[in-house]
């Protein structure tokens, strides 16, 4: 039982949060059971949400899903650029701590789009400026994000050899089989690594920040000149990156859900 002073408001939000975690519409009974609410109360709240466009009632199927108003809230969330606004100070702090450049990226189809770049002092400029798109399979950012997706979704993005362009000629991923193997390694290690595939003599490490449903929201990536950062320093870098990614998740969604730091 809720201890809130406004239980109707809290339970309305709980219903919306529950629907947002489902892969498709669900029945009122399932909502009531999952949230441990009286079915009559759930029906009343769903009716209010439906009248205001936040819930869509599929009458023939007796199911409820999110409505247009909920989509508009999501669009407004993106329009206000919360990832960039909250990510920028976190990346600035990470760069100050590590002395290497960092960026924040999201997945859009087969591409990674970079939202924030923080360059460390005395470090060269990178190919990952704000707004730049790069093929996701080439980048640590893209691999970190795709490793957190269902395999069927990744497979749908890569239909044939033409979907695996190269940049420096050193990219080992030229088929779905190679990509699947690389993403499996990311899942085992808890981070993604790219070396010389975007820019020669540069390496990148990436970790994913997840939303409240466990879905990959963004990736934090640190890029450095390969010869300047020995592998025995990666554990320190990855530890700081996981802390930043968890903090980004907490600020955005009230949770911290990156892949646990594996202690490289």
From TrEMBL:
Pfam families for this protein: HTH_IclR, IclR_C
SUPFAM superfamilies associated with the record: GAF domain-like, Winged helix' DNA-binding domain
InterPro entries: ArsR-like_HTH, GAF-like_dom_sf, HTH_MetabolicPath_Reg, Tscrpt_reg_IclR_C, Tscrpt_reg_IclR_N, WH-like_DNA-bd_sf, WH_DNA-bd_sf
Domain HTH iclR-type: 6-68
Matching CDD domains: HTH_ARSR (cd00090)
Segments forming domain IclR-ED: 69-254
Keyword list, A-Z: DNA-binding, Transcription, Transcription regulation
Species annotation: Kocuria oceani
Protein name: IclR family transcriptional regulator
PANTHER family with a match to the protein in the record: HELIX-TURN-HELIX TRANSCRIPTIONAL REGULATOR, ICLR FAMILY, HTH-TYPE TRANSCRIPTIONAL REPRESSOR ALLR
């Amino acid at each position: 039982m809720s201890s809130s002073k406004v239980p109707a408001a809290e339970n309305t939000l709980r219903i919306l949060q529950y629907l947002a975690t489902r892969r498709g519409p669900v029945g009122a009974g399932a909502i009531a059971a999952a949230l441990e609410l009286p079915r009559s109360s759930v029906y009343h709240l769903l009716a209010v949400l439906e009248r205001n466009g936040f819930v869509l009632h599929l009458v023939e199927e007796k199911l409820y899903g999110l409505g247009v108003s909920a989509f508009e809230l999501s669009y407004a969330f993106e329009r206000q650029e919360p990832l960039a606004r909250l990510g920028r100070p976190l990346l600035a702090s990470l760069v100050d701590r590590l002395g290497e450049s960092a960026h924040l990226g999201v997945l859009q189809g087969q591409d990674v789009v970079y939202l924030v770049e923080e360059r460390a002092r005395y470090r060269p400029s990178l190919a990952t400026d704000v707004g730049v798109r790069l093929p996701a399979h080439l980048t640590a950012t893209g691999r970190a994000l795709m490793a957190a997706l269902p395999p069927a979704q990744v497979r749908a993005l890569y239909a044939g050899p033409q979907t695996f362009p190269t940049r420096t000629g050193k990219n080992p991923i030229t088929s779905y089989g190679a990509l699947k193997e690389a993403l499996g390694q990311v899942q085992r290690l808890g981070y993604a690594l790219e070396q010389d595939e975007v820019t020669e003599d540069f390496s990148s490490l990436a970790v994913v920040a997840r939303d409240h449903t466990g879905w990959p929201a963004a990736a934090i990536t640190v890029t450095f000149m390969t010869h300047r950062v020995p592998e025995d320093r990666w554990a320190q870098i990855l530890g700081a990156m996981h802390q930043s990614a968890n903090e980004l998740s907490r600020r955005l969604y009230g949770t911290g859900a990156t892949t646990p730091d594996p202690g490289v």
